[in-house]
Amino acid sequence: MAMVAITTTATDEESQVSQPKTPSPTEMTPIHNAEIKNRALNRKIDVALLPLLSLLYLFNGLDRGNVGNAETQGFTSDIGAQPDDLNEAVSLFFVTFVVLQPVSAAVGRCIGARHWIPIMMFSWGLVTIGQAYIKGRGALIATRLLIGAFEAGFYPTSIAYLSSFYTRFDLAIRLAVFYGQYAIAGAFSGSIAYGVFHIHGGPLKNWQYLFIIEGALTCFFAIVAWIWLPSGPGTAWFLSPDERLLAVERMKQDSAAFVKHDYGEDGMEMDRLHKRDFIETAKDWKLWSVLVLNICASVPSGAFPVFLPLVLQGLGYESILANLMTVPPFVCGAIGLYIFAFSSDRRRDRGYHIMGGLLVGIIGLVLTVTVPSSTGKYIALCILLSGIYVSAPLTMAWLSGNTPEPGKRSLVLGVNGFGNLGGIIGAQLYRPSFAPDYHVPFYATTGFLVVAFVGYLSYRFMLAAANKRKQALLAMMTEVDVENERLNDQRYADKKLTFMYGL
């Protein structure tokens, strides 16, 4: 993920991580002034973009998982379907969601995130509203397929969009704030459902109001996003002319040694996608190696936004209260993610932090099936969710930073969306036949996380070995050869010997 100079030593890396003492005004150097300007620029972008994009992703999570809340109120029986039909519909949601993710990400790269994000969002909001009026198994499956199709490109397009505003080691904590809304969506969904499900006496079922309210809010914020979002850092309306220039130049410098592009007035590359981007993505061993691990790690995070209310019902909480009791575990999930992501950026490490989150999740799963009391199991679920949301955003940050070519990066992030296949596995595991204790699904989920833990450890050592090989080859090259390696296009972006993979 990082581009490090060949002469960098361990002591240099430690000095980068540590926080230097703030100098007095008379001691200011050009480097200190640049750091101050960068921090000020990041703060403006944080205020103008991050809250809105995070809010949009919140509704992405709400509209994906609200069928679980609705099911606690008899959703499937009211529409003439069976409880197992919900598992099938949730699984099939991930079919369109996963298969169309690279395609949708490519469309977003071509037409621009500023347009594609609102279009996707408005579309799935309309389908969510329509979900309030469906009847039968077929309509249930159709609406979930459509929501999956429209939501498919939202996450990779948003990540690629953010990566055009933030440099590589400013990105992970922002991704955590963004992705954390997926955990917060679970908490927020439970809170909304708890309130909406107290509506009685109206012309509709209370779960119908849930779909209508959340779908209408999604459509509203899609319109807001289309008005608010700039095309790129060069046209960011919330920045001064000098700040826009700085925002564009620092992104160019972040990858200038490895990629070469012509840029438009918005600061975005004019040549959006090349045939070589598709070829290099297909040949990228890093992507395919980590994808299997991401699928395994995503099993619990894909399942619990939908099925946690039903798991809590199995602990003895009544249907409406079960929705409210989902709030603390999901809040724990967001807090855990923020802590791990902040530390990941600060220490410039991805692999060990991902493994740390997986370890917390494994501990939570073991406690969930071994602690006898319902209160103890509830606490164990809070521990479990504190770790399961860490791997996905840090994996995205890891792949993003290790893919300096923007066109290829958008495709890599889209293909990595196949990690959501873990949601299909989770939907099949947490079936009503395993209620109320769900021991078999918990055992299986533990196995997936253990495999992911061992795999990510191996993956980190693979990257370290690749860096060692590159350094050995560079040691035998002259300065002229090294400079030629940096600037020619014989090897593509991260494959250049001068590019060192972040660990």
Characterization of this structure:
It is a single chain. The chain has 503 residues and is mainly α. The chain has one domain (36-263, 283-495): MFS general substrate transporter like domains (Growth Hormone, Chain: A, Up-down Bundle), CATH 1.20.1250. The protein is built from 24 helices and no strands. Helix 6 packs across helix 7 and helix 18 packs antiparallel against helix 19 (374-388). The N and C termini lie close together (7 Å). Mean pLDDT is 83; it is low at 1-23. Residues 1-27 have a biased composition (Polar residues). Residues 1-29 are annotated as: Disordered. This is Major facilitator superfamily (MFS) profile domain-containing protein. It holds the Pfam family MFS_1. It comes from Cylindrodendrum hubeiense.
- Helicity range: over 70%
Order of helices and strands: HHHHHHHHHHHHHHHHHHHHHHHH
So how many helices?
A: 24
Alpha-beta content class: mainly alpha
Could you tell me the CATH topology label.
Growth Hormone, Chain: A
Q: Please tally the β strands and state the result.
A: 0
Shape: globular
